[in-house]
Amino acid sequence: MPNVLVRDLPEDVHRELERRARASGQSLQQFLTSHLSSLVATPTVEDVFASLDRESGGKVGFQQAVKDLHAERGDR
């Protein structure tokens, strides 16, 4: 399994991560693995927009709908 090394982590951040890991009954490795797994399981905003852009349905695409909405609102 791959490893991740974080250099120059501020001591206060490390202490807080260790405190949170202990509070949840986990080792620091388990705690970070859990949180990093959650991070990558959540799609980014860009991923969501890209997915919506690929969806079919209406007569105009998502990007055109956004442009039309901005034009209607007078956004630049």
Amino-to-carboxy terminus distance: 48 Å
The radius of gyration computed from the alpha-carbon positions, rounded to a whole number of angstroms, is 21 Å
Structural class: mainly alpha
**Helix segment tally:** 4
Low-confidence stretches: none
Query: Helix coverage percent of residues?
Result: 55-70%
Average pLDDT score:
91
Domains counted in the coordinates: how many?
A: 2
Description:
With 76 residues, the chain is mostly helical. The protein has 2 domains: 11-41; 43-76, no CATH class. It is 64% helix and 0% strand. The protein has 4 helices and no strands. It has helices at residues 11-23, 28-41, 45-54, 62-73. α1 (11-23) packs across α2. The radius of gyration is 21 Å and the shape is elongated. The relative contact order is 0.06.
Task: Briefly summarize what is shown.
The protein is mostly helical and 76 residues long. 64% of the residues lie in helices and 0% in strands. Helix 1 crosses helix 2.
Please give a handful of descriptors for the protein shown.
2 domains
What's the SSE blueprint?
Layout: H1 11-23, H2 28-41, H3 45-54, H4 62-73
